[in-house]
Amino acid sequence: MGDQWHGIAQQETGESTDSVVSVTEWYERGLALKKAGLYKAAIDQFERAAADTTLAVKAYAQIGLCLKIAGQGEEAVTAFRKALAGTTVTSKERVQVLYLLGRTLESLGRIEETLEAYRWIRREDPAYRDVAARIEQLSERRPGPSEKKSRSGETGLAGSFMKLRQTLLGTSK
After folding, report:
1. Spatial distance between the Cα atoms of 127 and 132, rounded to a whole number of angstroms
2. I want to staple 50 with a disulfide (CB 3.0 to 4.6 A). Which of 1, 6, 59, 84 is the partner?
3. pLDDT in tens, 128-147
4. Whole-number Å distance between alpha carbons of 18 and 6
């Protein structure tokens, strides 16, 4: 079904759709396909749109949503991290994507990473959605002190910041 857009554009213009269709159109088509429940085809359109840095953040966020809806949580986490790594991400977009990432991590049972994402949101926008309530609820389920150390072995604010950076960007440094 994802090639449906290709076929229609080629029939109408006789040209390859890559040279005719703008990245904004790829993104809008992805939204329409997502709304219709055609997630695989939508992801294809969003991937094309993500090639443009001005739409990469939104496109990767939409890819993450499609993957999450399709039950592919780990892949959704990767897509949300790609959105956060975008060079054009605004503060507002960062908060929105962090929330999506947090909800996805929460659904996967990754409590420490979820808390880090939610705390980052709380620093940026203390009243954002239900973040304060989620932090409180998840803090009660938090692992013991021996599990709180970051990969670098640091604790406290510095360790939290390094771990958050690693979590969000998917890096080991």
Report:
1. 8
2. 59
3. 999 999 999 999 876 555 44
4. 9
